[in-house]
Automatic annotation (TrEMBL):
It comes from Aquimarina mytili. Keywords: DNA-binding, Transcription, Transcription regulation. It comes from the Bacteria. Residues 215-313 form the HTH araC/xylS-type domain. This is Helix-turn-helix transcriptional regulator. Transmembrane segments: none annotated. GO terms for molecular function: DNA-binding transcription factor activity; sequence-specific DNA binding.
Length: 317
């Protein structure tokens, strides 16, 4: 069982290395600073003795490339195992807990959204990376040819990070971009969402909506905002009409924008109920509800049980 806490911390790359991988802090002290936008280590150097048993929130993207062995994690309340010849992408705002390491070999690569935006001149290209969106496929099995290619890329990336030379920063950005594009092609699998293929305007707007929604919930977890935004506020941020936003989201996902926001609110509520010792009123307040009664009715509508019943059920499992 994970340790309960007052709130679920949101960690920067520097804080992640310091708190979750403290044994690497000294090794990479010259490479990891408070405002670091990139970090990389080999998985063989990650030992289970130091892993936190309490959940935390990434404030950055992470790629797990596993050559051998496996990693067991809880990601957004879902059990996950990343095994041999697999690659997995984690994004900012996700709540996770490391559970078990089975002698993994490979690499862990972390980078911020700002770092990602520096990779391309066309900022809209980021919105074509479907696998970085919530609820999308983000774990990939690599066949022999792809595994060989990715292994070469990650080895080169690690070499540039650990033994920097002239143009190393540029090469690091280049190799990350290659990984993202190669994975996007693999994710698309001929469906037309890879590099150089235009997407429908509804897909484009849906992707931007999902990105800024995740940022909103990340800010909510960090107590930078006092509630989830409403559909019209997301529309304002996108500089479009709320009705048009709703149409695009429904066309791309089959769901209404409001239902997606509500489901994300439920997920955050579940994480608070299972991983913090805050009472129902405190959680309701943190999620922006006017009263605990309204929060209880909202939660029961989606889950068929009250928040307290959900918490008790979680304690029994």
């Amino acid at each position: 069982m994970t340790t309960k806490q007052k709130y679920i911390p949101s960690l920067s790359i520097h804080e992640f290395v310091k708190n979750v991988l403290p044994f690497l802090s000294e090794k990479y002290s010259s490479k990891i600073q408070r405002k670091s936008e990139f970090f990389m280590c080999d998985l063989a150097s990650v030992t289970p003795d130091y892993l936190l048993d309490s959940p935390f929130i990434y404030d950055f993207f992470t790629i797990y490339f596993v050559e051998d062995g496996s990693i067991a994690k809880i990601n957004q309340l879902q059990s996950l195992e990343i095994g041999e010849k697999q690659i997995f992408f984690s994004k900012p705002g996700e709540i996770k807990t490391w559970q078990k390491l089975n002698d993994p070999k490979g690499y862990l690569v972390s980078f911020t959204l700002d770092f990602l935006l520096l990779l391309v001149d066309d900022k809209n290209l980021i919105n074509t990376f479907d696998y970085l969106l919530p609820n999308s496929r983000r774990k990939f099995e690599l066949n022999a040819a792809r595994f060989k290619l990715y292994k070469t890329i990650f080895n080169e990336l690690h070499k540039e990070f650990t033994s920097p030379n002239k143009y190393s920063k540029d090469l690091i950005k280049f190799w990350i971009f290659v990984i993202l594009i190669k994975t996007n092609r693999m994710h698309a699998d001929g469906s037309g969402s890879g590099l150089g293929v235009s997407k429908k305007s509804s897909d484009f707007i849906y992707h931007k909506f999902m990105f800024i929604m995740e940022q909103n919930f990340k800010d909510l977890a960090a107590q930078k905002v006092d509630r989830p935004f409403m559909v019209r506020e997301f529309a304002d941020l996108l500089n479009i009409n709320p009705t048009y936003l709703g149409e695009c989201v429904r066309k791309a996902s089959g769901k209404s924008a409001k239902s997606i926001i509500n489901q994300r609110t439920i997920l955050m509520a579940k994480c608070q109920l299972l991983h913090t010792f805050n009472n129902i009123s405190e959680i309701a307040y943190q999620l922006g509800f006017e009263s605990s009664g309204y929060f209880i009715r909202f939660f029961k509508k989606y889950e068929g049980m009250t928040p307290l019943e959900f918490r008790k059920q979680g304690l029994r499992t």
